[in-house]
């Protein structure tokens, strides 16, 4: 039984989704089965929870996984029967959706691993958190439900640290900072996310400049929340979109890239079974490293000419 304490008034499904990383649809399904409670009383997904109330979610036993296994090569950095850490390549979708049912990370995981947690359902087994299709880097996958619940709790309590590197357009003035906004569906384009003056969900991102170039900035981002497209939307909000991001950035790009230069390079978590703190790192993908090499050479050449 998962339990959450409401810090402020909210819908029960929103509270559970934000604190557990379960999807609202998954929470609603469990609520419809009578598995969602507020202070011990069964409630619907849309029940209004007051500050200080305790919300419980009764997670059922594992269910059969229906996504199909596919022999797709993936880079598994670590695996022990409880968790697996994967370095996701650019262009790979994490799970099925929007008409795509094959070629996803889930399909590859089902072929590679003995088991996956069932909490997020038959389409997203094992998936605790996600990164965008054209974002590269580290994901932790739960191989059983107990591990899934532990990892979800760590993400909710911000003890699971997810760190990214992104190359941004332009020169960021600040050396470091914190971005806190509300993010929700863009009212002008429902396929995109946007910073909203009201509504949406709270999104917090920490940033620190890692390296400066004449017309670009390499920035280290740490997620405090996990909203859809969060770093990409916050980078745009800063006025410095991610290089290669044609959704939130410039339509005309200098470099020929297949996606944004955003890489989940470091992941720190507590092992669900042993309690050991573990940190994993993934090197920059080749195209990202190549662009940085070009920029460094250009800046070095400019320095020589100025002397």
Average per-residue pLDDT, rounded, comes to: 91
**SSE topology string:** EEHHEEEEEEHEHEEEEEHEEH
Number of helices: 6
Shape: globular
Our count of domains comes out at 3
Poorly predicted runs of 5 or more residues: none
Give the biggest sheet.
10 strands, mixed
Strand percentage, roughly?
Answer: 25-35%
- Going by CATH, the architecture of the largest domain would be 2-Layer Sandwich
Mind telling me the C-alpha Rg?
Answer: 20 Å
CATH topology grouping of the largest domain = Pseudouridine synthase
**Which CATH C-level class of the largest domain is it?**
Alpha Beta
Percent of residues in helices: 10-25%
Total number of strands: 16
Structural class of the secondary elements?
Answer: alpha+beta
The N- to C-terminal Cα distance equals 67 Å
Under CATH, the homologous superfamily of the largest domain reads Pseudouridine synthase
């Amino acid at each position: 039984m998962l339990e959450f304490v409401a810090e402020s008034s909210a819908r029960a499904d929103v509270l559970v989704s934000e604190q557990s990383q379960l999807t609202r649809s998954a929470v609603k399904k469990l609520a419809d089965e009578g598995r969602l409670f507020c202070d011990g009383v069964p409630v619907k997904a849309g029940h209004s929870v007051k500050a200080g109330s305790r919300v419980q979610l009764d997670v059922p036993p594992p269910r059969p996984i229906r996504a199909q296994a596919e022999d797709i090569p993936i880079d598994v950095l670590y695996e022990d029967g409880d968790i697996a850490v994967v370095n996701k390549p650019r262009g790979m979708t994490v799970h099925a959706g929007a008409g795509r049912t094959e070629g996803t990370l889930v399909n590859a995981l089902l072929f590679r691993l003995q088991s996956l947690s069932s909490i997020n359902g038959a389409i997203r087994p094992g998936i605790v958190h996600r990164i965008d299709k054209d974002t590269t880097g580290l994901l932790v996958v739960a191989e059983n439900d107990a591990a899934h619940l532990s990892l979800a709790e760590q993400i909710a309590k911000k003890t699971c640290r997810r760190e990214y590197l992104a190359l941004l357009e332009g020169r960021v003035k600040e050396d470091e900072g914190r971005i806190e906004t509300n993010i929700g569906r863009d009212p002008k384009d429902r396929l995109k996310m946007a910073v909203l003056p009201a509504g949406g969900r709270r999104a917090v991102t920490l940033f620190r400049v890692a390296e400066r170039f004449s017309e670009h900035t390499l920035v280290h981002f740490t997620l405090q929340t996990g909203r859809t497209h969060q770093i990409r939307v916050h980078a745009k909000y800063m006025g410095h979109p991610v290089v290669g991001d044609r959704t939130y950035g410039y339509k005309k790009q200098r470099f020929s890239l297949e996606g944004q230069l955003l890489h989940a390079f470091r992941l720190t978590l507590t092992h669900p079974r042993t309690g050991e703190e573990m940190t994993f790192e993934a090197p920059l993908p080749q195209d990202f490293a190549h662009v940085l090499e070009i920029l460094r050479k250009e800046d070095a050449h400019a320095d020589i000419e100025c002397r």
